Amino acid sequence: xxxxxxxxxxxxxxxxxxxxxxxxxxxxxxxxxxxxxxxxxxxxxxxxxxxxxxxxxxxxxxxxxxxxxxxxxxxxxxxxxxxxxxxxxxxxxxxxxxxxxxxxxxxxxxxxxxxxxxxxxxxxxxxxxx
Length: 130
Fold this sequence. Notes:
Helices cover 50% and strands 15% of the residues.
């Protein structure tokens, strides 16, 4: 009986920890409309595009800072950014921006938001690029 109760307690703890970490991770993964709102509402926000030059040539969101994820010194370029600012990061579909957000989080950036689905989702919702 005690063994069953112990197993149950351990399961409850594991489930609650898993739910908390999932919530924390997804709270910075934002939909295109929220991304757009934050671009216009935040004063110190930096839109960060981590796509290749060829992808950037096809259109951008806002007036972004562009750092090519494929550059050899990508990490150094990211770490040279002002850690106190708020960043809105995007790529084509969300993979590279997610990795960029993780890198920034690990290195003490204050606030980093990742566009869920990247510029592809942005366009699919009818929002315009420049």
